[in-house]
Design brief:
Blueprint: E1 2-6, H1 10-21, E2 25-29, H2 33-40, E3 45-47, H3 51-57, E4 63-66, H4 72-81, E5 90-93, H5 99-110, E6 115-122, H6 127-130, E7 133-137, H7 140-153, E8 159-163, H8 167-195, H9 203-210, H10 219-230, H11 246-257, H12 262-274, H13 279-293, E9 308-310, E10 313-315
Parallel strand pairs: 1-2, 1-4, 2-3, 4-5, 5-6, 7-8
Antiparallel strand pairs: 6-7, 9-10
Helix pairs in contact: 8-11, 8-12, 9-10, 11-12
The chain binds NADP nicotinamide-adenine-dinucleotide phosphate.
């Protein structure tokens, strides 16, 4: 069982390890020599210096698994691989990619006689030990070809051929949308617990209690309970939450399908707000309240992150010397 793993970041490196520990022979490549060196020590893993060497060394029909950032890095790598590969080879894209891109790319590769399977992968840095949930979309023959590898990556029952091309990344996108909503609900609940100062609630103890028998127990809650035991005040953590694309795509899908998904959409909006993207609107609100009701406006000690208003136009904030 030979497989090529492309991209040895947090996900790809551990997936290569899990595949090798399960008995697969892994050829691995990443841009950075450091990532390749770190993996070369692993039994049954060999690294190559470039994609051409990987293609040359893999037995046909080949299976290659991409674990790269979605968008340009994945698209560029597919474009570089396509002319090197032979008819019948299977490329798996494990990135958190937009399912419409994956459908288009699969059709393009099919024109060269190549298969592209879209694989939603979940499990994060814990996947090495616990296994990865894998959601597959694509041609049944190609999925059958990669199934032995998927079985090494996933825990028992932790994978599914969801449907045709795009279905794997679609299911992963919705999975991540759900994740946005769940995380937001936990965060809000614990903020409310923390806000009830008169009860001096022990948040770590409440989280621990809820892990046992309660209907809101989950792996996310397990992680939260661990975090709270170490640090419940979180004073060293800036209140800024990134969003990676999956939440936006899920919200767009809700609009396109006309399916109400307010929890996911609002959870996404809260991340935008945490990034300061709601600050200008909040300033407008404060000023309007002042205009019609004379309500006090708090003088801002914080510089506007997006810009400042000059002559009715929002101007970029000049660098202070
Ligand atoms: N982290 C998670 O929990 C998680 C969970 C599920 C899915 N995913 C998805 O899995 C994929 C990989 O995530 P990750 O967390 O492993 O990311 P990561 O730690 O940032 O690693 C990214 C990998 O891609 C390589 N890379 C970046 N830009 C590249 C480019 N332009 N050309 C070639 N290689 C490039 C990096 O190489 P260098 O080391 O040389 O920079 C590195 O090997 C992403 O699509 C992500 O959305 C992540």
């Amino acid at each position: 069982m030979h497989i090529g793993m492309i991209g040895l970041g947090r996900m790809g490196a551990n997936m290569a390890r899990r595949l090798a520990r399960g008995g697969a022979e892994v050829l691995a490549w990443s841009r950075s020599a450091g990532a390749r060196r770190a993996l070369a020590r692993e039994p049954r893993v060999a690294t190559v210096a470039d994609l051409a060497s990987m293609v040359e060394k893999l037995k046909t029909p080949r299976v290659l698994w991409l674990m790269l950032p979605a968008g340009k890095p994945t698209a560029d790598t597919l474009a570089r691989l396509a002319p090197l590969l032979a008819k019948g080879d299977v490329v798996v894209n494990g990135a958190n990619a937009y399912y419409k891109d994956s459908m288009r790319q699969a059709a393009e590769l099919a024109g060269h006689g190549l298969y592209l399977v879209d694989a939603g992968v979940s499990g994060g840095i814990w996947g090495l030990a616990n296994g990865y949930a894998v959601m597959l979309g694509g041609d049944a023959k190609a999925v059958k070809r990669i199934t032995p590898f998927v079985k090494l990556l996933a825990p028992p029952k932790g994978w599914l051929h969801c449907g045709p091309s795009g279905a794997g990344h679609y299911v992963k996108m919705i999975h991540n949308g759900i994740e946005y909503g769940l995380m937001q609900a936990y965060a809000e609940g614990f903020a409310l617990l923390a806000g009830k100062r008169e009860f001096s609630l022990d948040l770590a103890a409440v989280a621990e209690l809820w892990r046992h028998g309660s209907v809101v127990r989950s792996w996310l809650l397990d992680l939260m309970a661990d975090n709270l035991k170490r640090d419940a005040a979180l004073e060293g953590i800036a209140p800024v939450v990134a969003d990676s694309g999956e939440g936006r795509w899920t919200a767009i899908e809700a609009v396109e399908l006309g399916v109400p998904a307010p929890v996911i959409s609002l959870a996404l909006a809260m991340r935008f707000a945490s990034q300061g993207k709601g600050d200008y609107g909040a300033r407008q609100l404060a000023q309007l309240r002042n205009s019609f009701g004379g309500h006090a406006v708090t003088g801002s000690g914080h510089p506007a992150p997006a810009g400042r208003v000059r002559g009715g136009r929002v101007a970029r904030k000049k660098k202070q010397s």
